[in-house]
Amino acid sequence: MAAVISCNSYSPLAASKWINPTLPTKASTFLATPKYNPHKHVQCKLQNEQKGRPFSLKECAISIILAAELITGIPSLDAYAANPPLPDLSVLISGPPIKDPGALLRYALPINNKAVREVQKPLEDITESLKIAGVKALDSVERNVRQASRALKQGKMLIISGLAEAKKDRGAELLDKLEVGMEELQQIVEDRNRDAVAPKQKELLQYVGDVEEDMVDGFPYEVPEEYRNMPLLKGRAAVDMKVKVKDNPNLEECVFRIVLDGYNAPVTAGNFVDLVQRHFYDGMEIQRADGFVVQTGDPDGPAEGFIDPSTEKTRTIPLEIMVDGEKAPVYEATLEELGLYKAQTKLPFNAFGTMAMAREEFENNSASSQIFWLLKESELTPSNANILDGRYAVFGYVTENEDFLADVKVGDVIESIKLVSGQDNLVNPSYKIAG
After folding, report:
1. What pTM, to 2 d.p., does this model score?
2. Signal sequence span per UniProt (predicted)?
């Protein structure tokens, strides 16, 4: 890819609240949505330099408030946040949301190694430290670095013991690089070079994420038999989506890096990768962009999804949601239908650019090819209090240039979506069978 100018322009919608949201459903739904006509830094071309029990009464009341806001677009929650009439709003909110897509993906890995998490957390906390103005932030960053370095030295053997046997050598090399990188970050702090902190932090967290992936030894569970012959992503994959932006004075084109999580959504992610390999989305227009979601995937003609040439029928996939603490996803039912009102999803709608499947409102297993990316402010509608978590299948996050999704408009064209890693994790690829 040719060198291009980094995406740094301001995107007003990226910081705004949801605007008149409608649930991200397929084209023929009750809500009458209109017919829709890891790892390197990816950049954008700019035209200029700008940039299990029923709800309690109180829980029901809170849910009604949140649902009303989403459906009407009226930001009713703001008034309640300042002076909440119901003192236990926390029953639906389990603390400050993790909004960084990289962190969400790291925590979503099927591993249980406390030692590596104790290295990860202070490195992630550097982001909060950098919100302090000027070089004063570096004092807080220094504490973060020292905490992470201490955790690595004390827990290195425990981290190595948690690596999959076939990946121990690579994992040990990554830990050595991480150790050297933290020394370099310490020197950056001592030199009072604030601007160099974030790039080095990103590098170190990449090492951490790679180490954590090396702890996964094979695919951790069996997909239910009825879905076992579908295209499945048994692991992670990454794609680059190149969008040609029309009629935008700030943005000409952008490449979005998307990491797909097959550990927690193997059927959903596998279906998408299979369609990517078929070039299904190449040349397709963005069909919805309303400040709430960016959506596409409805092909030309009467079909509302992907017509499998081998069957000449629409291929649909089941609703697939991984609940935090469970070993395998639940299928075909929303968490609300299962009575899991307070359950946390492993892949929550927390990050700006959360990627999920659209479906018909009252048909859980109707998803096919229509996808959406959520433009979300987590503080306004926290995880598990937004009527999306547990109802739509999340299967990935935009990890590069996600803020620029707010600049994408209806009619902009997806020039291509290309698989850049993880092809070996795709099993039962139908594109090879059908050509």
Report:
1. 0.81
2. none
Q: Which of 213, 242, 266 is the last residue of a domain?
A: 213
Q: Which is nearest to 399 in space by CA: 236, 253, 271, 248?
A: 236
Do 353 and 204 belong together in one domain? Answer: no
In this structure, of 81-85, 170-174, 188-192, 304-308, the range with the lowest mean pLDDT score is 81-85
Strands (E), 282-403: 288-289, 293-296, 307-308, 313-314, 320-321, 330-331, 354-357, 371-374, 394-400
Instruction: Write the CATH number for 205.
Output: 1.20.120.290
**CA dist., res. 7 & res. 127, Å (int):** 19
User: Sign (positive/negative) of CA torsion 186, 192, 193, 199?
Assistant: positive
Taking the alpha carbons at both ends of the chain, their separation in whole angstroms is 28
Task: Find the Cα–Cα–Cα–Cα dihedral 94, 98, 104, 109, rounded to 10°.
Answer: -40
Residue 259, pLDDT score? 98
What's the burial of 213, exposed, middle or buried (CB within 10 Å: 0-12/13-18/19+)? buried
d(CA 331, CA 393): 10
- Looking at 163, 195, 213, which one is the last position of a domain? 213
Query: 19-32: buried (b, 16+ CB within 10 Å) or exposed (e) per residue?
Result: eebbbbbbbebeee
